[in-house]
């Protein structure tokens, strides 16, 4: 059966196929993509849903990390260093998806706060290595409860959260591929 512009889009279509189908429907006089309402203008925008969820996460993490004097990015650096004690700035950038021009000032502030130690690599002085300072290791131990605190704040089944994480990981991977 042939779809008309008013037919719902086949949800099994991949992104490129769905985009082509939606473009054809719009060309045939169908509704624009970002159709919403006055109270929900972004109802059909996945990017806004992810953005709004990230804002909510930021508020929650700010509340949980403020007593430890940490920002969310500082927390992530500490977690990454706790998993692999000695990393290069490049390695940290890869796991955090950050460029060195964003990461370097952050690491300098963390070093000034006594949380990390930065040093030149013995074999290649162009490479900067980062490790937890003793005070950073103390803070890592203090924030070990944060993932459980976040989980406690979410009144959702664990299975739903695991599926959502897998879907968001895949979404991020696809977005990174499309911008490479």
UniProtKB/TrEMBL annotation:
<dbReference type="InterPro" id="IPR036390">
    <property type="entry name" value="WH_DNA-bd_sf"/>
</dbReference>
<keyword id="KW-0963">Cytoplasm</keyword>
<dbReference type="InterPro" id="IPR055166">
    <property type="entry name" value="Transc_reg_Sar_Rot_HTH"/>
</dbReference>
<keyword id="KW-0805">Transcription regulation</keyword>
<dbReference type="Pfam" id="PF22381">
    <property type="entry name" value="Staph_reg_Sar_Rot"/>
</dbReference>
<dbReference type="GO" id="GO:0003677">
    <property type="term" value="F:DNA binding"/>
</dbReference>
<dbReference type="InterPro" id="IPR036388">
    <property type="entry name" value="WH-like_DNA-bd_sf"/>
</dbReference>
<feature type="domain" description="HTH marR-type">
    <location>
        <begin position="43"/>
        <end position="173"/>
    </location>
</feature>
<protein>
    <submittedName>
        <fullName>DNA-binding MarR family transcriptional regulator</fullName>
    </submittedName>
</protein>
<dbReference type="InterPro" id="IPR039422">
    <property type="entry name" value="MarR/SlyA-like"/>
</dbReference>
<keyword id="KW-0804">Transcription</keyword>
<dbReference type="InterPro" id="IPR000835">
    <property type="entry name" value="HTH_MarR-typ"/>
</dbReference>
<keyword id="KW-0238">DNA-binding</keyword>
């Amino acid at each position: 059966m042939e779809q008309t512009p008013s037919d719902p889009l086949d949800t099994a279509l991949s992104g490129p196929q769905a985009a082509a189908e939606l473009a054809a429907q719009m060309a045939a006089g169908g509704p624009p993509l970002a159709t919403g309402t006055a109270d929900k203008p972004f109802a059909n925008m996945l990017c806004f849903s992810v953005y709004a969820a990230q804002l909510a996460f930021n508020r929650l993490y700010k509340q949980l990390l403020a007593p430890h004097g940490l920002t969310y990015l500082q927390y992530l650096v500490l977690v990454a260093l706790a998993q692999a004690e000695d990393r290069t700035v490049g390695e940290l950038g890869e796991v955090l998806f950050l460029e060195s021009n964003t990461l370097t000032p952050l690491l300098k502030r963390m070093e000034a706060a006594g949380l990390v130690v930065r040093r030149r690599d013995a074999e290649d002085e162009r490479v900067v290595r980062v490790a937890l300072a003793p005070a950073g290791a103390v803070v890592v131990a203090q924030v070990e409860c944060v993932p459980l605190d976040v989980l406690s704040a979410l009144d959702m089944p664990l299975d739903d959260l695991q599926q959502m994480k897998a879907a968001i990981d895949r979404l991020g991977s696809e977005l990174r591929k499309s911008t490479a």
